[in-house]
Amino acid sequence: MRVPAFVDLFAGCGGLSLGMQRAGWTLRLAVESHPDPFSTLKHNLIDRAGANASWPESVPCVAHDLRELLKDRRQALEGLAEGIELIVGGPPCQGFSTNGRRRKDDPRNQLVKSYLEAVELFQPKLLLIENVRGFTSMEHEHGTYSDFVAAQLVNLGYDVWTEIVTAAEWGVPQRRPRFLLIAALKGTLTGIDPFLRLRTARRRFLSERGLGGALVSASEALSDLEISRHDLVPDREFGSLGFEQIDYRSKVNLSAYQMLMRDGHIGVPTDLRIPRHTAAVESRFREILETCPRGRSISPSDRARLGIRKRATTPISPDMPSPTVTTLPDDMIHYSEPRVLTLREMARLQSFPDWFAFQGPYTSGGHRRRNACPRYTQVGNAVPPLLAEAVGEVLLGLLSSIGEQGRERTNVGEMHRQTVPEAGEVS
C-alpha cells in the first residue's frame, strides 16, 4: 500500500511539513525560496534519520522560488504530480497581516497566483491553505483574498471549506488565530464537513498526547527552561562570542506539554542561547513585570510612563497561553525573568519539539534585515506543528473517505451495468 504523499509550498522552516509527517503523510517536495529556512527544513525533515520524506531525483534538494520552479522544472513536476494526493502551504502572510501595512500591491500577495498554478498542475485530491486571519479581510479586486482563492479553486474543480481556528485549542501554548482553507476535488466528500471532523477529533487528539482539555499555559511550556533553575555554561554554538546558555538538566516533574516537546529527546535542547541585555534594559523589563498587566500589550499610558517608544511589547502571563509569537524577539517579555525569550522558548510556544534544530543566523539588523530570514523569523513565521498534525490527521481521514466514496460509486456503477439490459437484450 502506497503511503500518501504531499507537497508543501512556501514551506518556511517546516512547521506545517513536520505536522503532516507526524500525522502519517510523506513529504515529496517542499518549495521555499530562502536558503536559511530551507536549510532548517532539510536538516530536520529530509536529512534526519527516519524522516518521513522521499525527495524526487528530478528536482534538486535546494531552495527554490515557486514561480521559477514552475517555469524551469515543469516537466519534472508533471512527472511527480501523479503520486501527490495533497498540497499544503501558506503564501507569505506579511502582506495580509493586520500588524503590517497591508499594501494591495505587495509583491508577496501575488504568490497566491503561483499557488493556484501549482494546484492546476498537480491536481491533488486535497488542498490545505494556512494563513493569518487578515487573509479574510485583505481587499482584492474580487472581494477579499480568501474570496478570490476560494472562487479560483471552485473554477479548478474543487469544493471549498474555510474557518478561523485558534492554535491554543489544539494544545499549542499560544493564542494564534489562523485562517484555514480545506478543499477537495468536487463531489468526492459529499455530506462531509472537514472542520466538523476537526472539532470532533479535538478531545481525542489532546488526550492521546496527554494534554487533557485545558489550555496549555506559558509556564507549563517554559518552566523547565527558566534560567533560575539551572547553572549557566558557554553556549554550544556561540560561546566563543561570550554568549551563555542554561546547563539543561531534564527534570522528573516535567509538565505533560514539556514531556511532549521532549519527544523522547535525551539530549540538551537546541537553540538555548540567552539574550544579552544592558543593565538599563534589564531594569526596564523588571519594572514592566512589576507594574504592568500580564498577557496583553503595554498600554499607551504605561509606555509613556516608562519611556518606551516600541508599540508592541507584551509581558507574558504564566497562567495563560502566550500572545501570538512574532518574528521579533523583543515583542514579548518572559513572565518571571527580565529578558526576552530564547529561541528555544519561542519554538516551545510554537510546539516545535526539542530536537528540532534551527539553521542560519540568530538575528539580523541594518541593511540585512530586508532580505534576511534569521532563526527568530523562521520560528515566528512557522505554522505550529501540533496544530498542523491535528489537521493532517483529519486530512488523512478525508483521503480515506474519498477512497470509500469512489469505491461506492464503482460498486453502484457495476450493479447498474448488471441490472440494465445490454442493447439488443430482451428484459
UniProtKB/TrEMBL annotation:
Instruction: Please give the InterPro entries that the UniProt record associates with this protein.
Output: C5-Methyltransferase (IPR050390), C5_DNA_meth_AS (IPR018117), C5_MeTfrase (IPR001525), C5_meth_CS (IPR031303), SAM-dependent_MTases_sf (IPR029063)
List its EC numbers: 2.1.1.37
Alphabetical keyword list? Methyltransferase, Restriction system, S-adenosyl-L-methionine, Transferase
| Top-level EC class | transferase
Q: Which GO terms describe its biological process?
A: DNA restriction-modification system; methylation; negative regulation of gene expression via chromosomal CpG island methylation
Active-site positions, per UniProt? C93
> Where is composition skewed (Basic and acidic residues) in this entry?
407-419
Write down the chemical reaction(s) this protein catalyses.
a 2'-deoxycytidine in DNA + S-adenosyl-L-methionine = a 5-methyl-2'-deoxycytidine in DNA + S-adenosyl-L-homocysteine + H(+)
Q: What is this protein called?
A: Cytosine-specific methyltransferase
Taxonomy of the source species:
Bacteria, Pseudomonadati, Pseudomonadota, Alphaproteobacteria, Sphingomonadales
